[in-house]
Amino acid sequence: MIVGQPAPSFTLEDVSGERVSLEDFHGKYVILYFYPKDMTPGCTTQACDFRDRIDDFSDLNTVIIGVSPDPISKHEKFKEKYNLPFYLLADEDHQVSELYDVWKLKKNFGKEYMGIERSTFVIDQDGTLIKEWRKVRVKDHVEEALSYIKEVVEE
User: Fold this and answer.
1) What is the pLDDT of residue 3?
2) Which residues does the annotation mark as catalytic?
3) Which CATH superfamily is domain 11-154 in?
């Protein structure tokens, strides 16, 4: 994946059972963020930060899409508990995570395992990848993404 090239296309299931494709958002900006696991501290903070700024993103013609390998049933509980007003997509077989090169070997307490490297991508109205953040730190990330979108929209 290269910034300036078309973003990899995908179709995944949302908590409503709806199949959601990147192409569904042609004409809008898309914040596509990959996160490791529902209901964990960092992922909850990040999701709630996006929730709290959803109106600002919406005003800038921007849709938020969160993707993790968790099943729909966990996404439903996460979305309901924290009143998350954006798409949460299930990538249980991690095919989309692999397309975006965020399925990585991770280490935690000496254990190695495969999982999501927290990452965010901005896709423009024509489906072109225009920005990426990898190895995202949650603190202030949503504000940074919002500032970037504001700059792009105001150009």
Assistant:
1) 87
2) 43
3) Glutaredoxin (3.40.30.10)
The per-residue pLDDT for range 56-66, each reduced to its tens digit, is 999 999 999 99
pLDDT higher than threshold 80 for residue 1: no
| CA torsion, ordered 48, 49, 53, 54, to nearest 10 deg | -40
Residue 93 Cα distances to 3, 27, 54, 67, 125, angstroms: 25, 29, 28, 12, 28
Does pLDDT of 41 surpass 80? yes
Give the DSSP letter of residue 110: T
Mean pLDDT over 76-98 rounds to 95
The DSSP annotation for 29-56 comes to EEEEEE-S-TTSHHHHHHHHHHHHTHHH
Spatial separation of the C-alpha atoms in residues 123 and 115, rounded to whole Å: 23
Distance CA 6, CA 45 (A): 30
Beta strands in the chain, from DSSP E residues, in sequence order: 11-14, 19-21, 29-34, 62-68, 87-90, 103-108, 111-116, 119-123, 129-133
Spell out the domain ranges in the chain: 11-154
Do residues 129 and 5 make contact, with C-beta atoms less than 8 angstroms apart?
yes
What pLDDT is attached to residue 16? 87
pTM recorded for the entire structure: 0.94
